[in-house]
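Memo to structure team: turn this sequence into structure tokens by end of day. - J.P.
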Amino acid sequence: MSDDSKLIDDSPIPDSPVIPNQLSGDAVIRFRCHKDIDCFNACCKNIDIMLTPYDIIRLKQRLGITSTVFLRQYTEPFEFGRNSVGGVKYKPKEGTNACQFVTDEGCSVYEDRPTACRYYPVGLLSTRRQDESFDRASYALVTEDYCHGHFEDRKLTIDEYRQQQGLEDYDELGRPWRQLILKVKSAGPAIGNMSRTSLKFFFMACYDMDRFREFVKSEGFSTTYDLDQETMDRLLVDDLALLAFGDRMIRQIMYAEQSIPLKKDALDKHLARRGNRKSTEHDDMARPSMAAYEMPLDGDEDSGKR
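Reply from structure team:
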């Protein structure tokens, strides 16, 4: 297998039958999208859009709803691998493949549109080799028959296009999540197969910020983790701080990357309360108040059918 093929194999993007040509940021593309083009809105009527945690924060804030409501109303789940961690995609309008936010005038949430929408027709390939501890970013140009923007008289580099699309914050705030997905895909969790509790925790800490905040406020959390009051106060009001904290907590639970202090004898006390039932240490550290959490996208529960 070539190095390029290996890198693409390790990409967090769901499998595709097409292996793209990898491009650098200084590659020149020809593209322009505008309201007067004859294919305007065509891409929005045939969607397959994966959402990052930061995308969800921006959109739920834009709509003035909780992350839980947003997930139930506007998204659907997928797995990055068999019995692996989950991701979420936009859920199309019922009976169609169209985005729920598309209108005749364009995108109704344009200022807060997701990363994938901003990148189109460029695809971000975030890749990682099994023997490396860092990720690589490259790009691919997506050409589809219905898109006529490739015939417009404008040329620019991919880096210039990214800047025009306001991707700096989206790339920076989405990178920890992409790295985490790559880590799961390339190596698996350090503790072996993940239990349902661990998978639920991963989902909540990545995508359901408002429910994760309730988890952080819970008695089980406060008796387990030793956070100063200033940090706690920030987590209770700042979605981005909570997103970064969730990434740290996932890495601590799944990969023993210790960055969040535990209260003295917290694990021993928790195990004593639970008795002799077998479990793993990573499950026990994820378990405080998880019994009260049901993923909005559980396919085998009513909430996933809404």
